[in-house]
Amino acid sequence: MDRKRILLIDDEKEFCQLVKTHLELAGGLEVFTATSGKDGLEAARHFKPDLVLLDIIMPGGMDGFEVLKTLKKDAKTMSIPVVMLTVMQDDASKIEATQLYDEDYITKPVKLKDLKTKVEKVLGRFVD
What we know:
Blueprint: E1 4-9, H1 13-26, E2 29-34, H2 37-47, E3 51-54, H3 64-73, E4 82-86, H4 91-99, E5 104-107, H5 112-122
């Protein structure tokens, strides 16, 4: 079975490493990380992931909403499903993400087991 490629874009390096390790050890997934919106966009174009996990709050002038807009406007990345993974729990953020065509919205803190289940579901690998 081909390993599915996940790109995690989050400015918290420790969180990225924790998620990467957990998802890869669970099997069947290869996880790449980027710690800024700009690096995330470059990585998405280069690695062509099967799924992007994207934080909203990031420094450097490009937040997760800007990254999502850019991904969905680019012919090379528009078909990649994006799951928001953020501390933002307000309805306005959820609505904005939906309007920008995210696949799902997960709030932190998240249990790693629940994250793996959501990832599998979005990737079409979820088995009831």
